[in-house]
Specification:
Elements (H helix, E strand, L loop, with lengths): L2 E7 L2 E7 L10 H49 L8 H9 L2 H46 L1
Antiparallel strand pairs: 1-2
Helix pairs in contact: 1-3
Length: 143
């Protein structure tokens, strides 16, 4: 279970498997403390890149759609052109294979962004649990 993320972040290729299993607490608090902190930093970088890519994909889709609609409108405006209602032109654009390719890429990136956000929130909770566990261990030593 989980997801693989392969992205270029800050000029380096990151290949990481993000899974629910990595959210479980281990016995070694030192490993947990450094591991959670580094994972949060890495995921924050991945999230920033995913949000940026989502914006680029959305802009690319909007530009592609606007160009298609403009071309259809220009064809209709030519002498002898076939004037079509906007909903017909929209249907023509949305039936193009390019529409589905762009919308699917955008949907996948939106899902990645949501997954990374949720995972980052889960790591924040894990960080709190690690801190609590460490504090309880200190109290036990003092008692």
């Amino acid at each position: 279970m989980g997801r693989w993320f392969v992205r270029e972040v800050a000029g380096r290729l990151i290949d990481i498997h993000v899974s629910e299993e990595s959210l479980a607490l281990s016995v070694d608090l030192d490993v947990e403390t450094s591991g959670v902190a580094s994972m949060m930093g890495l995921l924050a970088q991945l999230l920033a890149e995913a949000v940026e890519k989502q914006g680029r994909l959305d802009a690319e889709y909007r530009h592609w759609r606007a160009c298609k609609m403009k071309n259809l409108a220009e064809l209709a405006a030519q002498p002898g052109g076939n004037k079509k209602p906007e909903y017909v032109m929209s249907a023509e654009v949305e039936s193009d294979n390019g529409f589905l390719e762009r919308k699917n890429a955008l949907a996948k990136m939106e899902a990645d962004v949501q997954y990374l956000r949720a995972y980052l929130e889960a790591l924040k909770v894990k960080s709190f649990l690690v801190q609590t566990k460490a504090n309880l261990a200190k109290v036990a030593l003092l008692a």
